[in-house]
Amino acid sequence: MTAETSQTLDRGLRVLKLLADTDHGLTVTELSHRLGVNRTVVYRLLATLEQHALVRRDLGGRARVGLGVLRLGRQVHPLVREAALPALRALAEDIGATAHLTLVDGAEALAVAVVEPTWTDYHVAYRPGFRHPLDRGAAGRAILEARRQPVAEPGYTLTQGELEAGASGAAAPLLGVTGVEGSVGVVMLADAVPERVGRRVVDAAREVAEALR
């Protein structure tokens, strides 16, 4: 540190960098040890960063990077969508169902990119900006499952009728993308999702993750 720099700002930026380097968040105690400061300082830093949506804390108290970091650059969401669109388009056309990329925003799942199939007579309408609780719908449940059981190879989550009557969903989490917590999925008008759809969604999630790295 020099006379021209701010110690508090420096610590806040270090907090963001530490959180960006982990997929599963850090506790106040873990941040305290890594920063070499007491817990009170960390609490204040996190509270300030939370006010600006740069940090969020889950129900277990672990701090993670917030979507406010993305909002700092207005072109970030368009860039994320652009990177994900080829895989989503291929998924929608292959399955004949609406495909989406969903990111965590606080306690909600936020659809940031959506592609509808071009050849079907009917499909589920799903729009970017659509929000729902993380514990409802395949997109959010896939993210929560990845939090509970982090693995190198993702599985997929299936739901039926949780967000819309008569609609079923399949989603797989994004893995290995530093600072991004999300999932790729499809929603279709069906009583159940065929097994091949689940496997195809896993492949699409892997493709999107590679495009975002």
UniProtKB/TrEMBL annotation:
- Domain (HTH iclR-type) ranges: 6-67
Q: Which UniProt keywords apply?
A: DNA-binding, Transcription, Transcription regulation
Give the protein's recorded name.
Transcriptional regulator
Which SMART domains does this chain map to? HTH_ICLR
Checking Pfam families in the record gives: HTH_IclR, IclR_C
- Give the matching InterPro entries: ArsR-like_HTH, GAF-like_dom_sf, HTH_MetabolicPath_Reg, Tscrpt_reg_IclR_C, Tscrpt_reg_IclR_N, WH-like_DNA-bd_sf, WH_DNA-bd_sf
- State the superkingdom: Bacteria
Q: Which GO terms describe its molecular function?
A: DNA binding; DNA-binding transcription factor activity
Tell me the CDD domains matching this sequence.
Answer: HTH_ARSR
